[in-house]
Automatic annotation (TrEMBL):
It comes from Winogradskyella arenosi. Keywords: Signal. InterPro entries: Beta-barrel_OMP (IPR027385), OMP/PagP_B-barrel (IPR011250). Residues 9-221 form the Outer membrane protein beta-barrel domain. Residues 1-19 form the signal peptide. It comes from the Bacteria. This is Outer membrane protein with beta-barrel domain.
Length: 295
């Protein structure tokens, strides 16, 4: 028993005597990886799928790394993703124009094992989780109203609304997901500037998907617009007066009855957040504990 305690104490003292802690900050850009279908482009002649990943975009990270010896350490990081626009719907047909994009605004964290091959080259491998945020959809729609609608609105509002006028709608819908778990892998090169500071560049891969939990329309405005571009009726529809059949909130579930009449529930889908990116950053290394001071 005493021998076991002695060995464990020696390992602990050895680890503490080497112990080095460092913090780093980085930023970079990632492109979508293993993109899935996220929308469609529709024209008079064809319909085309659009593919992508909400993991594409700019990101920033802050990391703390603790090295137990010359090669192995543990790394905890938090980061923010400012995702690029992904085309969800693009429609250009007579009488209807739609332009809808979605982008990620997400916070995440990762816990990784770090391995240093030498003083310059290192690798990371660990688990990745999303802490918070949303996928934000921003949509514009311009739909030509029927002659009957134009005549009815002209009479109801006492203003001239000629044939060919449109309903012009802008809205924002926020999507939230269930708690996801993915993985992160990276390989990097570190260049020391002095005993404390170094700069680095790394290639990083995120593998993660997010299953939708719910969504909420947070902004909505529909104007009636004449053919000359002037607004005939401002705020015809609003967040407090949505068009019939439009739900302010939607819940996503794994199963629905074939007799379900609640259109505020839809089947859940998984959306991709996987990406491959390049990061650049700076590291500050705290002074390493000296083993001779522990003796």
């Amino acid at each position: 028993m005493k021998q076991t305690i002695t060995v464990l104490a020696a390992l602990l003292i050895g680890s503490v005597s080497y112990a080095q802690f460092q913090i780093s900050a980085s930023g970079g850009y990632a492109i979508g990886s293993a993109g899935m279908k996220i929308g469609e482009k529709v024209s008079v002649s064809q319909t085309e799928n659009t593919y992508g990943s909400y993991g594409e975009g700019f990101n920033g990270q802050i990391r703390g790394t603790y090295f137990f010896n010359d090669h192995i350490g543990a790394d905890l990081s938090v980061g923010y993703l400012h995702g690029s626009d992904q085309t969800v719907s693009e429609v250009n047909v007579p009488g209807l124009e739609v332009d809808a994009v979605a982008r990620a605004r997400a916070f995440g964290a990762a816990l990784s094992v770090v391995y240093k091959f030498n003083d310059n080259v290192y690798a990371r491998l660990g688990a990745l989780v999303k802490l918070g945020g949303k996928t934000e959809a921003v949509a514009y729609q311009n739909a030509v109203m029927s002659d009957e609608q134009a005549a009815g609105l002209s009479q109801a509002y006492g203003t001239e609304i000629e044939s060919g006028s449109t309903f012009e709608t802008n809205y924002v819908e926020d999507y939230h997901g269930q708690f996801p778990l993915g993985f992160v892998a990276a390989i990097g090169y570190e260049y020391p500037l002095n005993d404390n500071f170094s700069v680095f560049a790394e290639a990083e891969y995120y593998g993660i998907s997010l299953k939708r939990k719910d969504s909420e329309i947070t902004e909505w405005n529909t104007d009636v617009v004449r053919t000359d571009g002037t607004v005939a009726i401002a705020g015809f529809y609003s967040l407090d007066n949505l068009p019939a059949g439009t739900n302010r909130t939607t819940t996503y579930v794994d199963e629905l009855s074939n007799t379900n009449a609640d259109d505020s529930k839809e089947l859940a889908v998984k959306v991709p957040y996987s990406s491959f990116g390049i990061n650049f950053g700076i590291t500050y290394k705290f002074k390493r504990a000296a083993s001779n001071k522990m003796m």
